[in-house]
Every structure is written in C-alpha cells, then in structure tokens.
Amino acid sequence: MQETATLPVTNEYGYFEIRLESIGGLGANLCGKMLGELGALYLSLNSLSFSSYGSEKRGSPVKAYIRWCAASQPLRINSPVTHPHILGIFHEGLISTYPVLDGISSDTKIIINTPLKASEAARKYNITVGTLYCLDALSIAMQSKSRINMVMLGAIAKASGFIPIETVETLCRETIGKKYPALIEANLDGVRQGFQMTESISFSESAQTHDKQNASAHGGGAAASQLAKEKYVWGYENAPVGGINTRPGSTVSNDLSPSREGYIPLFIQDKCINCGLCDSTCPDMVFQFAPGVYKGKQAMVNQGLDYYHCKGCLRCVDVCPTNALVKALEKDYPKKPWFIPNQDLLPDSITYQETGSNSYITSDSYLDEKRIDGGVV
Amino acid sequence: MNDNSKNPKSGAAAYAAQKVMYDSGNELAAYAAKQINYHVMGYYPITPSTQIAENLDVMGAEGLHDIRLIAAEGEHSAAGICYGASAGGGRVFNATSANGLLYALEQFPVQSGTRMPMVMNVACRTVSGPLCIKGDHSDIMYMLNTGWIILFADEPQMVYDFNLIALKLAEKVSLPVAVAFDGFFTSHQKQKCMVFSDDETVQRFVGPKLACDNPNTSAFAREDAAGENCFYSVLDLNHPISVGSYMNEPDVINNKYQLSLAMQEAKKKLPGLFEEFAALSGRSHSFCRGYRHEDAEVLLFVLGSSFHTASVAVDTLRGEGIAAGVITLNVLRPFPAEELRRLCAGTRIIIAADCQDSYGAGGGNMTLELKAALQGMEGNSRPIKVLSRIYGLGGKDFYVEDAMALFREALSDSPMEFDYYGITPGSETADTVKIDANGHVSPSSCEKQPQYFAPLTEEKTRPGVTACSYDSAQKKMTVKGGLLKDATAMPKRIASGHGACPGCGIPVNLNLLLKGIEGNVVLLFQTGCGMVTTTAYPKTAFRIPYLHNLFQNGAATLSGLVEVFHERQRRGEYPEGDITFIMVSGDGGMDIGMGSALGTALRGHHLILFEYDNGGYMNTGYQLSYSTPLGAKSSTSHLGKNRYGKTFFHKDMPEIMAATHLPYVATVAESNPADFIKKAAKAAAYAKDFGTAYVKAISACPLNWNDRPDTERKVIAAAVDCCYFPLYEVECGITTLNYEPEKLKKKIPVTDWLGMMGRTKHLTKEEYRPVAEEIQAEIDRRYARLLARAEHPLL
Q1: B64-92 residue pLDDT tens
Q2: B472 lies in a domain?
Q3: What is the value of ipTM here, to two decimals?
Q4: Do residues B87 and B97 lie in contact, with contact meaning Cβ atoms separated by under 8 Å?
Q5: pLDDT digits (tens, 9 = 90+) for A291-315
Q6: B763 part of contact set with chain A, CB < 8 Å
Q7: Out of B185, B492, B501, closest to residue A357 by CB
Q8: Closest residue to A275, CB basis, from B2, B485, B756
Q9: How is domain A16-211+362-373 classified at the CATH fold level?
C-alpha cells in the first residue's frame, strides 16, 4: 500500500522531524527504523533515520531521530533533531533527569508513556506548549502481549494526524510479519491500541519554545545543555592531559536507579544470616557489610543496601538461602529503612547524577528479535 | 544528498532496473558485496563497520550469496586472509575502522605493492586513545600513503555506488581500493536509496575476474582475447609464479614507480567508469563536487556527510546576501588536484574544516592537500586565502549552525589561520585541577578536587580472607580461608556506579577474584565491556591504579609495568613491598591478544592474566568469538536455512596457556565461589614467587546470552555441571580437578545448559540434534583427557 502523504507542517528547511527518547531495551531504535521505513516506502516521502550513536544496552538512554520531507526535496541535514514535530517519550523517568523536552514548540506533539492523565503530566513536567498525549503503553503492551515500541508506534501515527493506521499495519506485516510470523498478531494489537489513544491536551500559547539549550560561544551545538548541569566539567583548560582520571571511584556518584525495571530486592534483616552470598553475586556492590556482632560473635554484618547503585537485576534474591532478600515492586516501597549509601565514602553526602548503564553497543542484528518478541528464556 | 532528480524514473528504458530500499551505508555496502558475490571476506568486528559482515552473515545464512565469511582473530589476520585469497585469484572484500585499520596497516602496502585488487570498506572512526567509538576521519588518513585508491562516499547511496565502481576500478589497474565513509553518520543512517533489481546487472557491470590459472586464458597473459585484464594466481600449477620477492635497490624504486603509474592510470580511468555507471544507474559521480561554489566568495571545504548539512547553511547565507558555497572530495587517491582547483577558481577565501588533525602540521591532511593543490593554480593574481579548522573529532555532531559559524569566522575581521572549532575550556570552579604549561597537574589543586574515597592502603586490603603457604617438598600451594562470610571484609577495589548491564557477570567475577587477593593490586584492562563500563569519562570506577590498552597488547603492556616496578625497586627509586599485577581481558581480547598473552607467559613475568569468558564480542553487539559455543547464534553466526549458528568448537584457552608450561592455570566459576576465591589467592601467590598465572572465569551476559539476569548463577552452575566449563587447575604441570559433577551426581547433558540461553536454545530442538551431539562428544572428550591428566602426574 503506497499512500502519498502531505506533511501537515515543516520547519524552515522543509523537514518534518521526529525524536524518540527512551532507555535501552524498550525498542525505540526499532521504532525509529520502522518510522523511517514508513516514510520512505509507504508514505512516498523522502526519509532518513538514525539512533543516538551508542544505542541499546539495557537501561541506557537512547534517542532515535526521523526526518521526512516531500519526495521531490533532497534530505540534506544529518545532525540530530533538536526541534521535533513529534516527540515520543518511551520512558517517563527520563523527563526529570535528562533534557528530553528540549526544543518543543507549539508545533510539537508530545507523546508520553505514562499512566498519568495528560493534565496531570502537564502539571508534573511543566509542559505548557504544543499538544500533549498520554497513554499507558506499558500496560497496553503487557495486556496485548506486544511491546512498548509497537504501542508507541500506533500512538505516534495517531498524534501525527496524517498517518493512516492501515499503512502502519501494512508496514508491520511486511517487516515483523515476514520475519516473525508468530509475533505479528499480538504486535498489531499493540499498534492498534496505541492508535486508539484519546487522552490529550493542547496548549494554545503562541510559539514559545521550551528550550534549555545554551550553545556556547565556541561551537557548543545542541549538546551543551546536558553538560551544563554538572558542577565540575573537565575541558581543555583544566582536564588532566591524556584523558587521565584523577578521581578514583568517581562512578560512585552515578545513580543507577533508572536502570531498574520496576522491581527491587527487599531486605528483611531479621532473616539475614550474613553468609555473604548476596555480596558474591551482586554486580553493583550494593551490599554494605561492616564489622559487627552476629549471634554473639564478631562477624561481618549486612547493614543494608545502597539503592543508588542497584540496577534491579535480582541476582541476590535468587541466591539468598533464607529469603532475607525478596523481589518486590519498587513503587510499593517509597521508603526503605535498610537503604544506606556506600559506607566507604569520604564525604558525608554527595550529589548523585542519575544515569543508566553505559551505552556502547552499536550493532544489533542479533538483538532485533528481542526488540519485537521481548522474550527471554 | 539523496537528490531524487538523479534517480531514474521507474521504467525509464535507458537505465537498468532498480528498486527502492531503505538502508544504511553499512547495509548498502553489504548489499553491494552480496550482489557482486565476492569469493571471500576476511574480517574482524570493529564498530562502526561491523554491521557489514553481520548483514552479509544474515544473507549468507539464507543462501543469498556464496561469500565465504571468515571471522579472523584480529584485523591484521583479516588483511592476511584477504591477501591470500586475492593471490589465489579470488575476489576479496573487507571492512574495518579506526584502530582495526591501523592494526592491519602494514598489510596494505603489501597488498598494493604486489598489486592485488580488492575492496575494503572503511566506516571512519576516531583513532584511539583515549578509546572512542564515534566517527571522525583520523583513521582513513593513515591510508593516504599505502598505495591504495581511496574513494570517499558522503551518503549511503554513494556507498552502494562506490562499492560497485571500486571493484571494477581495482581490477582495471590492479590496485586495492578503499571505500570510506563517515562512521555512524553514513554507516548507520538509513535513507531512501536505489539498488539494481538484478544481481546480474551488477555482475555484468563489474565483469568476470580472470585469473591466469584459468585453462581458458593463456598462461601469464595480462590480457585475454577480449583485452580484459588477467591476474596472476599462485594457484597456477602449470606456470608457477613467486609472489613477494626479496627486492632492494635498484629494483624497489621501479616497483614503486609502477605503482605510481597505476595510480595515474586510475585517475584516467575513473571518469569513464563514472560515465559507464551513470549510463546504467542515472547517478553521476565525480572526483569532487561543490554546491553553489561557482560564484562563491567564501567556500567551506569539508569531507563526508557534513557536506550536505553545510549546503543548507549555504542556502541560508545566500538568503542573507553572502555568496557562500561548499566543496567536497569524493576521491582522495588518486588526488584530483586539477579538478579541485577548478572548483575553487572563483573564490577569495576557503575555510577548510578537517575532521582529523595532522598534529603539528598547522592543519588536517585535507587542508594540507588543498593548499598544495592550490599551488598549481595558474595566474596567481588573486591568491586564495585558506583557513584551517579542526572540527567534529570523536564524532561531535555537526549542525547547520556550526557550518554557519565556520562561514562567519572565515568572513570575520582577522580570523586565525588555524584553530579548533567546538572545544570547551571546562568549568571555572574553585576546585578544578590546575595544570602547568607542561601538562602537569599541580598536587595542591588535586587536593581541592572532591575525592570520594580514601586510598585503599595495604593494611585495609589485608583483612586475612585467605592465606597461602607453599610446601616445597610436595610442590603444592595450599590456601586457607576463602569463606564467603569472611570475604565480605575485603574492601571493593572497584566502586559502584559503573555502567555494566543489570546482572552482568563481569563485575561479579572481578569482585570474587579481588576478594581472594590480599594487599596492593594494580589492574590493567584490555578493551572490552569490562573496560568501557568502568571508565566512561569523566568518571572511573577504579579505586586502585588502573591502566588500559587495546586488546591485542594488554599482556605485553603489563609485562613492561611489572618489570619497571621491579627495576625501580632495585634502583631504590620505589619503596619496598609487593603489588599483585593483574591483566583483565574478555574472551575477545584473548582472541586478538592471544599472541601477546602467550609471549608474556613464555617470558614468565610475575603477573596474573585473568580472562572473563562470556563467549562473544559483547561490547560490539555480540559477534562470535572463538569461545562462543558451537551452534550458538550471534550477530556473525546467524541461524538460517543454510546455517546452524557458529561452525567451530569453543577455544580451549586454559589448555593453550598450560602448553606454555607456566606455573599456574585455573578455571573458576561464580557458582563455586569459595573455590574461586581460593584460586585467586593461589594465582597471586604463584605470580609473586613463580611467574605468570592464568585464571579463566566463565562470565554471564544476560543481554546476549538472552536469559534473565537473576538466573545467571544457575546458568553458570549448569555450564560447570555439564562439563562444558570444568573447574580445574594446573600447578607446575600437575592437573587437579576441583569439582567432579559425576561424582557428586550432578552431571547433566549439555543440552540442559544450552536450553537455558536464548542464544543456544534452538540446539535442544530435534532438527539440531546432530550439532548438540557433536558438542556433547567434544566436551566429553576434553573432560576425559582432564581426568586422565588428573590421575597421572606425567600427563
């Protein structure tokens, strides 16, 4: 099926631009690819797409960019999308930690994966321009046995106002359907439910932009806003030469909580026998053991967990012989009495910087299946 | 520029049939290779060019081409594979980037000097170090003097087109050709583009490669009856040739002159080839091109995808009444000086922006070559001013605004001749580090830096978790302690907050290793997941001294460090005391770095080589390593109707190391943590007093094993229980099995383990039973040998 789409709005260079903000593992990269293909092969547009280079390790921030224009016009800009017409936010947690809302304007349709109502989300995240759409893509994905990226794909088509659902379905059948026929129906269901998204709110203010960027005088470009948040920034005047790092253990100021996918290990200290198995399996050095007394004897005693660094892998729950560590939904435990920060730290308190796992993987042919299936053994 | 006006209208009779694709530069390079149907591709995965081999592997698994894809153990070997295949009359393909290109560098003049035509794609990336995976042009510039033809594509469509033109050109002049393009910006960006519908169209365009060993061509003839080039072949048994003479003066200069003539010949042939390709495809290419350059007062000269972005800035500036233009090169060798001069003829000032620097030369290589080309300008009445800027290093994005800023700088009152664009000074806070003119950090300013941890002193790192003693009569090292409940007292040498994936086995293994090692430790990591997740600038997870080197050289680097430690102690320059030196490497590093590790063990430096084996090149997206299980899926061993996954057995690295007769070899697994900790202690003791120790751990990768992070310890236990990963040690030649599953009634079939991971689950299906049986037989055989060795001290 080949539609000839007319773009409802374009920027000063004649492009319609989409940006997806996500964390690795939610399939934003694949969603971006599919949107690019949709433009090129199904909407008779000229189209390009790419992901933030580094891409999908579980829990790391991922961006995908799509740029469309009329088929008669060449696509000449290769840089990331700074002022999107559609902004898809796959992971709500990014909003408070990264400048993912940068560059929105009255032309922007913002789609957030959230259980919140649009009015609540607008208040919470101080969104006052553009049109805001909210849908609980996670719940829809779980219920339809689809994936968040498929639900978001449907929602983006809906918000665009010009992409017919039938075209998206055709795209899905020809891409996913051909490679993974068993998965197509569930994913189509997810796309359709995304397209049925109704929760939206429009802001009528004139074209003010939500722009935290402050490009530096010496060619800072659009990447400057994230750096500006940090207190100590090494540059050519003050960084030790050779890229040498003079601050041992400085990753400790990273807050890895955004890597968690809803679950935490719960610590029931009374049941703990201080066997140390948890400490032997934790990849993130979360357990804080200190000399103490256990059963009347001098022993290393588990004081608690440093949740700043827990990525929620639940390895500890699996090995704990006494159920002193159990799997729990994080939202049920806003306060954790056994939460203690790293015991070796010199400063009394440090400023944590929220972050995901490092991004590094730059090719994903092997992982494609997982993006659609989501299925691990 | 993806200018559709250049694409043929569908059904236009003059052009060959084409179809629309939506693909990236890497995908198109692979597609062109598939259509050409090369004989051999020798390659080694390196970001961002890896996808080329991966895409060919996907297509190969489905039987869409016959290319023999050979995953070398390093780029140097990949180039060797290509050379051998080319010498045998084959058509040969390669793809690489950055330090991979530099690792293979010495092979390129061999290939061009002996006149082997072949094609290599270079997805350009920053040359390390510090290690950076993003794109700039610092790698491809090392190719300039190798005698290779270099084409530079600035958009995905051009990657496809140039791949076809490259082979034809290579065979016309008997020179190898590199097709270069921007890493990520072009390699990973997908665009709407056109490819020939029929592979036959491509094969007709490139024509057949005629080797002299073909009985239908006359022996030693350089041309066949139709006047086509023929190629010498070392497979020509009737007319044996010697390739690679020992040649000094006066002959070498003649050989090089022939090469130089071939370059000139390539220069002459290219326009015709471009025309021939245009007639077939409707797309015209040239040595260099410009956008609104004819009447431009000011020109920006850039290479690669920036050309297109800059052209948008040109339009904007023209709207403001500034006569701006942009020019680029699409052929770097042979260098089109005359054509470039023609593009510049009307201009007054050129700002040449290089995405690399020829440090100390006052400009990047392209600036220098542009300046040299302009020397040949006739009628020097109005000399052109050339300003040089270095931009975009390490993949820094290039926006329209950046191009505008460069133009404005060129037109400003007294612009600097040479400068960097896009650099940041760093924030001026009270406690930043101050550096003197020599680049030394002043210690007082270091103190002002907030430090998170006090140094881990010798005393703090000797909680007495383990204690080793050597019985010289028995020739045995014994270890006491190692209990997990006590091991929690060992301070963590690696801090939390590193970026490994949730559930990753690498930090788990490092922690277990370091729990068993009392006292001072200095670490060296080879490139791999363990390194990139711990030292992402500006942070580091290491609380103890740490050094990184690229993964073919870590063991040698640590050898040097150990020796300088001892020598400085001997000279009284460094205090007395012990340090345990440990090199940490993945199984990938033990492929490409095996020679370095073996050399280190043979020399017997006092250090530990620690390998975490997750059975794949995980940090680049899981390509097969030599340790990947037979039959496992990976990005370079896909399943398909023609393939069942990886085609050869997992490497037995402990046995290879043991063959160097080093004092200590051990295998460890997190499922047996006390055994792990004790062996770590033993390794340190052997390293201190005897020589090199090698310890190997099997390491979980939830992302690419495709299993759940919380189950990994069970998966590891299964690998041990099925004897895929037996736990044993070899002490001064004596083998001891530390855990015998069959005696403990824990032995399981290998399929029980394979079924736990998504990458090998298919092997439990009936259709793959022969593969599973092969694996079972092989691990049983290897285990039986170990048993025999353990029973007999002489084995």
Answers
A1: 999 999 999 999 999 999 999 999 999 99
A2: yes
A3: 0.91
A4: no
A5: 999 999 999 999 999 999 999 999 9
A6: no
A7: B501
A8: B485
A9: Pyruvate-ferredoxin Oxidoreductase; domain 3 (3.40.920)
